[in-house]
Amino acid sequence: MNALPQRRIAIAGAGLLGRLVAWQLLRDGHAVTLYDAGDLDAPAAAAWTAAGMVAPLAETVVSEPCIFGMGRVALQRWPAWLAELEASELWHPHGSLIVAHPQDENELTQFRRDLADAVGDEASAQALDSAAIRSLEPDLADFRRGLFLADEAHLDNRELLVRLLAAIRRLGGECHAHTPVEPHPGEIATPAGRRTFDLVLDCRGHGAKPRHPTLRGVRGETLHVQTHEVHLSRPVRLMHPRYQLYVVPKPEGRFVIGATSIESEDRSPMSLQSSLELGSALYTLSPAFAEARILEQGVNLRPAFRDNLPHVICGDGLISANGLFRHGYLLAPAVADHLLAAVRGHGEQPFADVLAGTAPRMALS
Amino acid sequence: MRHDTLHDDTHHDDTHHDDTSHDDALVLYDEPFTSRFLLGTALYSSPAVMQASVEAAGCDMITLGLRRQNPAGGDGDAFWQILRESGCRLLPNTAGCRSAREAITLAEMSRELFDTPWIKLEVIGDDYNLQPDPFGLLEAARELIAQGFKVLPYCTDDLVLCQRLHEAGCQALMPWGAPIGTGRGLMNRYALRTLRERIAAPLIIDAGLGAPSQAAEAMEMGFDGVLLNTAVAKARRPARMAAAFARAIEAGRAAYLAGPMEQRQTASPSTPTLGQPFWHAHS
User: Fold this and answer.
1) For residue B4, what pLDDT is reported?
2) How many CB pairs under 8 A join A and B?
3) Which of A16, A130, A275, A278 has the fewest Cβ atoms within 10 angstroms?
4) Extents of the domains making up chain B
5) Interacting residues of A83 by C-beta distance below 8 A, sequence separation 6+
6) Quick one: which H or E segment has residue A168?
7) Which residue of A has its CA nearest to B53?
8) How far, in Å, CA of A28 to CA of A51, rounded?
9) pLDDT for A202-217, tens place per residue?
10) pTM of the full predicted structure?
11) Option in B46, B181, B234 nearest A306 (CB)
12) Which positions of B are catalytic?
């Protein structure tokens, strides 16, 4: 808590970032009003559909080196924040495993090369043989080669969103579900009328598109299954020449398998092709998944700018932070830190140039 | 050198091309194209990276896949808009179609969506290596040609298949160098050379290239252009790789036009060797 005067702050978007920032600002002593166009208990947010991996190494390989630095912030912040939420059991710092079929083992070689190129620390990826894979994940099918990324983690993301909302309510946050809003400097336009605030934060996902013409949705599909025949301790990625799929263990024998990535703003139900791809990846990882029950076929739109990196725009009375794309749980802590420093008027902003979109991009060089 | 509209090929800007490109356009279905490099728009880490790569490639034509974007609903429009901004001619493809019927339906839809008769025709016969199905391909090509499409079929290097596609009315063919995404280069030079000698239509090497040297080799062999995607998109610095391919394709084309010398069995010094005066042969 600090000695700053209490301000009336509105937040548009009760996804991961909106909840995280609302919780922190309430703890700072501000009066926070949170708006969401959808439900708060079964959110339409991409963060609800997501698998909740915190995988800075694996994600850097398919994105930009700046992801790695922001991801390291996540690895520090999440355990601390979860402890403050009395929810430490949601954090699983057990690393992640990457495997490939024998005919696709070149994908592992390329992954290591790209990782070394991007991060410059190849030692953080440990090569595994069949026995080492088996000792880490005994229920996995036999794979000859794999990689272990010891520094990665995953979290129980749905439970986290529930706990954050509970904390926000407990701290007196005002929450409005099913309320689409238009954020303006110092003002929120709701269907019921306009309300003025000292500060407005736009933390929406794809819903921010009207304010950001270059924001687009990228369709992602996930499969949620349940079985007690397979136990996994950590996320497992299956490398394939054309797609990378992963399975992330969740409480009570649940698993999330994701995710397709289709350049389309189509929210219609999962296609049969995607269902087959996700299902076969899962079956490949362990045939015991064959009798798992399909609980849910998730479809959502990842909010993305053209560089697929988040952008923060600070204006007088209005700050927007959008476009976390497929990296919500990985990047939200660093983006939240940046936002909180902007609101508080003090604190480090080590990713200011990245979030302003002015940092050099390796892939563009 | 970019096409803003479908028939805007009257004012080429060749300032950064060598002077061969003025009278050395790639002609497909009677339309000239300045660049012989066609680039795919899938697999990039972001649209920004894709845009930078297209720019660096200097291409006139870019391909786009529609199959999984729910094209009937127009849901891919945010992405298509980014492609339109490139100023390049959009070449929709039927990637992911496994039968002639699927490919024909998707081609018809893409003609509506993008107001273009151009189609890169793909009918996939094998799910793992994405090898073309020659039978479905020929069937779909015949139907689409009859409907007035300008069909660019992605085919294998089989001579008879290519002849049949040509006879069916395809005015350009796109044989593979190797299966899609493998980066293995020109797997069957004998078959490709045979195609070049026997087929009197533009031939564009589509798929399987991984390195610029392979693209240069294809161009030196007399192929008319190169289409690729993975080799650029999966490079660590895609825009830089796109520029490297662009130069290799230009160099290979220039070499082809220059007429490479024939290889010889034995070393043949270009100046007389002092130790072996030529008159000794006659003494």
Assistant:
1) 39
2) 77
3) A130
4) 26-69+76-258
5) none
6) helix A157-170
7) A364
8) 30
9) 999 999 999 999 999 9
10) 0.87
11) B46
12) 120
